Amino acid sequence: MTVNKPLPHDAAKLHVTGAARYVDDMPIPANCLHLAFGLSPVAHGILKSVNLDAVRTFPGVVAVLTAEDLPASNDVSPSAHDEPLLATDKVYYIGQPVFLVAATSHAAARKAAQKAVFDIQELTPLLTIEDALAAGDEFEAPLVFNKGDTAGALETAPHRVSGSITIGGQEHFYLESHAALVMPQEDGDMLVHSSTQHPTEIQHKVAEAIGKPFHSVRVEIRRMGGGFGGKESQGNALACACAVVAQRLNRPTKMRYDRDDDMTITGKRHDFRIDYTVGFDGDGKIQAVDFNQYCRGGWAQDLTAPVADRAMLHADNTYHLPHARITSHRLRTNTVSNTAYRGFGGPQGIVGIERVIDHIAHHLKRDPLEIRQVNYYALTGQTTPYHMEVTDSVIADITAALLASSDYKNRRAKVDAFNAENTILKRGLALTPVKFGISFTLTFLNQAGALVHIYADGSIKLNHGGTEMGQGLFTKVAQVAATVFGQPLSSVKITATDTAKVPNTSATAASSGSDLNGMAVKNACETIKKRLIGFIAEKWGADPTAIRFANGNVETGRQTLTFAEVISAAYQNRISLSATGFYATPKIEWDRKAGKGRPFFYFAYGAALTEVVIDTLTGENRILRTDIIHDVGKSLNPALDIGQIEGAYVQGAGWLTTEELVWDDKGKLWTHAPSTYKIPACSDRPEIFNVALFDQGENTEDTIYRSKAVGEPPFVLGISAFLALSDAVAACGDGSVYPDLQAPATGEQVLRAVLHQQGQEL
Amino acid sequence: MKIEFLLNGEAVSVEGESPTRTLLDWLRENRGLKGTKEGCNEGDCGACSVLVTHNDENGPAYLAMNACILFLPQLHGKAVRTVEGLAEGDTLHPVQQALVEHHGSQCGFCTPGFVMSMAAAHQTGETDHNDTLAGNLCRCTGYEPIVKAAKATETAPVSVAIAADAINLPTTGALQSDQAYMPQSLAEFAPWYQENPDATLIGGATDVGLWVNKAFRDITPVAFLSQIPELRVISETDTGLRVGAGVTLNRLRAAIKTRHPEFAILIRRYGSMQVRNAATIGGNVANGSPIGDSPPALIALNARIRLQKGTALREIPIEDFFVAYGKQDRSAGEFVESILIPPQEDRLKCYKLSKRFDQDISTLLGCFSIPVKDGIVHDARLAFGGMAATPKRASVVENALNGRPWTETTVRTAMTLMGEDFQPIADVRGTVEYRLRSAQNFLLRYFLEDQGVRTRVLEERP
Hints:
- The structure holds 2 protein chains of 2 kinds.
- Chain A is an alpha+beta fold.
- Helix content of chain A is 29%, strand content 25%.
- Chain A has an 8-stranded mixed sheet, sandwiched between helices.
- Chain A is globular.
- The mean pLDDT of chain A is 98.
- By secondary structure, chain B is an alpha+beta fold.
- Chain B folds into 2 domains: 1-171, Ubiquitin-like (UB roll) (Roll); 233-456, CO dehydrogenase flavoprotein, C-terminal domain (Enolase-like, domain 1, 2-Layer Sandwich).
- Chain B is built from 17 helices and 22 strands.
- In chain B, strands 2-1-5-3-4 form a 5-stranded mixed sheet. In chain B, strands 10-11-16-12-13 form a 5-stranded antiparallel sheet. In chain B, strands 6-7-9-8 form a 4-stranded mixed sheet, with no helix packed on it.
- The longest helix of chain B is centred in the C-terminal third of the chain and has 19 residues, at 432-450.
- Chain B starts with a strand and ends in a 12-residue tail after the last helix.
- Chains A and B meet through helix 1, strand 29, strand 30, helix 17 and strand 31 of A and helix 2, helix 3, helix 4, helix 5 and helix 17 of B.
């Protein structure tokens, strides 16, 4: 069995030697043109004209295209067809592509793109959630989930608190910015290399852009330099731009965003404001909660609807809410269209309920941990606000294990003692849990395909619909194939994801990559294995039920054959050694308008305890120690899973601390480079960082080897850093004022909250 | 102009390139060496890190540097190793092997940069990994397995090939063309600059690199100052420590550590290892940025700046050099030659406030020297960056301290006057109120630290 083993990433050696090839590293074909977009300098306005003379005459420029020059569809939207590749009559955000430059070098295209003279009649932009609310500009009517009688239960609850929290957005900051390389083929076909999590969508959008059926476009991607959701839909524009120019001039084309362009043009995590009222009893047990979630979508729909849905679906987190009303507003603003980002709204929804728990604890002067535990879902039998029964809640067990492994009780006492002794520095401690729903909420997306070949020498080649962005999907899926055939991992080669090999794929998103593709691969392998078993039984006279594929060999029950020997014989006996595999997640059905159903196949759980220290003079703060126990079921690969958990935690903590997106009052993003947008650096990781997999983990549903998805759930654990800061702030006052910390908790926000505790304002 | 250097152990010479062609673009576009990645093209992410070897005043120096803001002429006479030039045959360099074993790569895009930073640190024996890796951003791993890999290789033998680079460095001639000049002595440079006062002077190019990459400026003609030996000198003199304008921040950090440990700690947070290996003290001062990190420290230390024009030298207090935003007291053809830090009782404390601790531009920086004799403050020097259009002293606050007893009452009274010294602006790094309040609290922190109160989050351990 190669599954369950902590094997290194399949490309690790290529990574460390610089030999791993990304789109920008592919040899540039002769005659290739390099593209750049000219961007709107105005957040909202009527595009009266653009003078492109200086762009066209810039040395090296070969062509300049505007919307009028596009041959077919002018749309790169993944959803509502409201996102033109190039702006037409109006512009909607600063950074919106308005025209396209093709030049003989990357530098020439970028420089030429600066030379346009815009004539734009400026209109008033809506920049914030509050602006859009005041203007009533929502993408759709507010969606409401209802369970029980929330108003009535709030009325009769012994205690009630209300509050509001703003939650900032987040730049993906994948290290590899977006890139596409397109090569015209015969008969007008296009071969597209794109750094995308969603090759099928690239295929569709490119085909529409050049006016061809889907079969005319082939999209290939071997790996991305990070994705995190940012490459689910945001690569469409580059691929379509390249294809349109490639078709027009019959030349290869390449486009890659400079970092500043990438951060300006592409969408980010949705920022939210969440208002809440919660009713509870003297033990802190929640009786009812009423949430209003306000989600900033930006100028176009993109994936805002499902992101906002997922925020609603995670408004309960690990807590049973007997009565709940969750109202979701999806607001349109003249800022970049926000998009998928690890967790896809889930983390924002969870921040809401974790904030509520923290607020209840403050109100009752209790340790928030106790309030959490008293509200945890029972293992089975309780329902979510969307009326799905929870049947696998292991959060209480995980919490108990974490309290023991992290020495919580003593640590709590030590933190309290520290705070009593120190006037300037204060420490904080917080444990937060996660329950994350696994499955695409658009149910039909929960399908995957695979293609497996065994060559005559016994070597195995594998393709599936998932994409590799660093998460180790290819390694895990190869482990599955190797396990089915009892082969070492080295006998399995995974090649680039390719729409010509596996069609109609879903995005590698929603943490579903190994669940869906692992199963599809397993099914393909089982098909071939079944043929082999039939053949072996016949040729070697074996009992089919006794045949075992293990340790590189085939045990027939009567003799041991090498795998290569079996394959060679099968080939000579005209047995098909190639198969497709398919998988569709069972049991799920979901009515989003009604807010009812079973959107998720299962839940993934985990918990983190974070200790921080703050400086009450400046708000500066550090994460000192983090302990995590996370449930990945039966791990397909413990090393890769722990890597996902560590990375997700640090990314989640960054979201809620140093990562601040700042726009000016004209709607220009100020933080468009790593000089101003600060993701965690090496020294920001916790000095003590204990991460363990939940040792009793096993998926109750029949997933691939009973594992659980891991990509997104542990991102949520970063919330423990935020609430630890809140705990430290609370130690600055007399307990009468709730810290009311807003996210991200930059030094400035922390100082503001500290001063608030002391009865002052910044 | 023929630029000669070693590339992965092989001698190369480059002709016909623009003097502001970056090493990164040249590696990827001319040499097909695509292991070195472009992550940000401004020296902030480290994905383009390479290892540059040369011989400096103390022998071989193995430096991690950002290839995206390194112009080809800066390599003249040096050796470069890229990620492709580390493994020997099938044998990985120890840091490469450890990264594989400790699962230190996920998407792999930042990995070549980490590999090179780790290889540089490994070669020199540096084991403060938070420091040596501060200039490499990773978005996937959370850094934990990378640091584990770095720790695991601390005792592994160093690379013979890298060490050999220091021995095999090419002997080079002068570089000169219409567009670029690399003088070999002050005597050559000073008259040339007097005749070419519009030339752009390049120390380490950590700022100038962005003018080229991001602002698309044509900065030619350029003069590269890194091979002028006189500008690289650090010397003890009767009047203090004289630091040549071409001294890199990392060399200054080592030289100042004993005399003013707080200055060294501040420099630790200046950019990153890669940036400090390139950036010079002269460049940081001469640029006149209101948020440059060394001027406030130098002002607090009562440092003097020596300027040279032709053969004429003049020396002024460094605080007088910063006249207004974008304007320094420097005439055409005049350049910063050296900085003098006078001997003094070390009362320096430096408080840098930034969104992220490492590799971040200061929201504000306060550098204070507050001597106390017999319980009375005298000659207080409080200098700030990020609070005004130039690095500037808090004169009103200083006056409220001088001659008064060193007590919390004095401090709290003085703090209230900060608004008379400064009317800071709001920007991406912070609001007016945050800057002003933190500036005031820095003074309180200085006092409390003097009383032994714990105030530094960076010194807190779990």
